[in-house]
Structure formats: structure tokens, C-alpha cells
Write the C-alpha cells for this entry.
Amino acid sequence: MFVNTQPRYEILSEDAMAMLDKGWKRLVTEIGIEFASPWATEMLAAAGQKVDGLNVKFDPEWVLAQVAKAPSEYQVHARNPENTVTIGGQNMVFSGVYGPPFARRGDKREVGTMEDFRNFTKLCQVFPEMDSAGGVIVEPDDAALDSRHLDMALALQTLTDKIYMGNVVRESNAEDVLNMAGIVFGGREKLDTMPVMISLLNCNSPMHWDDRMLDSMRVYALANQPVLLTPFLIMGAMSPVSIPAALVQQMAEAFTGIALAQLVNPGCPVIFGSFLTNANMQSGSTCMGTPESAIGLFASGQIARRYNLPFRSGGGFTTSQTVDAQAGYEALMTMMPTFLAGVNWVMHTAGWLESGLVSSYEKFIVDMELLRMLQVTFTPLEIDEESLAFGAHQEVMSSSDSRHFLGTAHTMEHFRDCFYRPLLSSSDAFERWERNGGKDAAERAGEIATQKLEEYVEPPMDPAIREELEAYVVRRRKELGD
């Protein structure tokens, strides 16, 4: 977990914020939000909101009163206590990609497998900068559809000792993941006071919460597990093309989802989610790492802070089909704003390629280089007598032989740790680089991914707990007919 104490980059004036507030309140009052589960509309009607079929029109002040019940900061516990994290405040927690159906390694782009899923889980465990492997790091197409959530949960719980994400495909999947967490943490009843996972619930923008998301949200909220409520906004497709209109829609969708979660379980932990970018108006395809997405990220962070909500956004996004310069600069165009905006929960930190269709081994390493460099960049600069190195100046200026600092006592004392040491970047002279094979960053990244997987050591787990987990998976797989 990285604590970002640097100033936040805020772009909204008080007048702008007031206009956005007016906008989302008008949307929920005059147009309304759709909720596709009967239990949700029944609860909202009982709470005094205007329900007409799926459509719910809200009292904005009621929504704000509900939002205010959500905690601004809370812990999520890992089975290794050293990897427990705090969501909210100045904390940045980094998680793996989520949802790609394909995996890419070198020149091979193939449907994801369970081996790929386990490999990406291991990579997230190996790098200390990663706080979580995430959830569906890649969709394992070779695992049975109705029970693959069991295989993924088992991998996340055994191959890492960090926090992870719950499954939201259907209500029963959520129950399974909670039951398995109960095995790991000594009883499901303990989860009520000890959040151990975060679950992603996407609004089906524009302004429709579907039944599967709502049903899974209810399961996790009742268990007091953090729910990440995220509008999915591609400007020009899922929202109007203007950034202010998209922000207003995002607030309407997220706030009403959070309000319902608080109605299900007052005080349950939530995260205000933002996935906001734009479509290519020539082709209709999704664009990533754009100036518009960066602006939306800055504004969304400021909105989340205004309402004292933990905030999710950002990551290593790119539209590029391969690990090239475009993949690098687009990822930086999102990851730098992620730090400047002070995002609390960062999904898609490492491995995202091709607009989220692909989990890439090489891109994972490129993104790790970016993350490591940004964490150093956003670490406060220490300025004290020792760092001023006055003695080094004295030593150099009193020497008649040389006027450089390479051999001074201060340099010799600090040369091992004075500068960032790259994971991936090459600073070799051309001749040396050529002798070593003339490999570009993507090729070197592939070699590092292979090396890290070879170095991976599975974190220890009580054999009795592992046996119980595996028995649960076997039993449930049979019950599900797989």
C-alpha cells in the first residue's frame, strides 16, 4: 500500500462543482435510474422514492443522507496481516487487471486459460508494489463456465496472501466466494466485522443497474464486504460526449447505487467508482489514455473527496494491440493522473492491453516499471543537512586531481540506493546493447515475466485450511453439474 501525501490536482471551481451537483440532482429527480431487481425497487419504494416499474426517481437529499452513511476509510484484511490495506484517505491500493478474455505472451494472442490466470496471480504476488491480484485477471476459458469462479477464488486464496476480489456473475457465485473466505478466516461470521475482499459492481450505463449486479451487491453488502459501484461511461456511447454531462451521469449512477447499498446495510463499506473515457467518433471504438479520460479522472477524484468517499479509477490503460510506444504513453497518460488525483483503489494496474480485451505478460512488466517509478516520484523529498552533502562539495573543491563527485565519500556511501534502479529500462551504450541481442523493451519484459514466474514461491497456508477449501470446490462443482 502506497501512501500518497502529495497535493491533489483539482480542476473544479466551486461554481463548477455547484453546477455538477445541480445536474445529477436533476437527472435522478426528473429522469430517474432503472433498477432491474424487484427487491431493490421494493426497498426504494418503502424508503419513499418514486417507483414506476424499473424506473426510480429519487429525492436527492435522501440520496445524500444515504451516501453520508458510508465510511470514508476502512481496512481490508489479507490472510497475511502484513498485506492488509486501508482503503480511503491518502492510501493508494493497486490491483491487477479485471475481465480480459484473451491472454498475450510474445506474439501469441489466445483465449485465456486457468494457467494464465494462475500465472498472473503469481506475478501479482511476486511484486510488492501490487497489493492485490484482483478478481477475474483473465477469463479462464478452459474451466467449466458454471464453476470457474471456484477455481479462480481458490487460486487467489492460495497462490497469494494478499487481498482479492469477489465474483459477481451471479448471486450464488458471491455466496460461494464468501463461504470460501469463511474457511480461510475462521468462519463466515467473522467477515461481518472484518472485510476481506472488494467486489466490482458495474452500472449498465446509461442509468441502469441490472439484476445480476444488484443481487451480488446485496450479498456482499449484507456480509459487510466493500462494494465498488462503478458507472461504465464511454463518452459518445454510454454518455453524452461532453465531460460535464458524463460527470453528472456518473454521480447520478454511483450515488444511487451507494444509497441502495446503505439501505441494504447502513454503514457498509463502499467505493465510489469511475471508469470514464471516450469513444472514437470516426469508428465507434473505445479510446484509452486520452486527455479527456485524464480530465475526467481529475474531476472524479475531486468529487469523491467532496463527499468523503473512497475513490476508484485509473490504471495502465491502452488501446494498443501490442506492447509498443503507444501502450507505454497511453498507460502513463492514465497512471500519472491516477497519482495526481489520489485514487484509493486502482484496478487494471498492470497487464491491460487492447482496450481491456487482453491480459499481457509483457505489458504487466512495462506497467510495473511505470508504477515503481511513479511511487518514487510521489514520495516526499527529504531535505536535511545530510542530504545537502556539504562535505562532498568540500572534498571535490579541495582536490587538485579531479572535480567530479564519483569517488567522494558521500557518493560511495549512497551509490547503492541514491537513485531509482530500473526493472526494465536499458541505459546500456549502443554497442553493449547490440552485443546483448539488441532487445527492445517488450522482449526484455517477456524475459523478466518468465524470470519472475520461475522465482515465485507460494505463500504458506495451513494444510487443513487448504484441504477444506479444495473439498468445498469439489463438492460445489458436483452440485453445479460440472
Observations:
- Residues 243-264 form the longest helix (22 residues).
- Residues 96 and 133 are 5 Å apart (CA to CA).
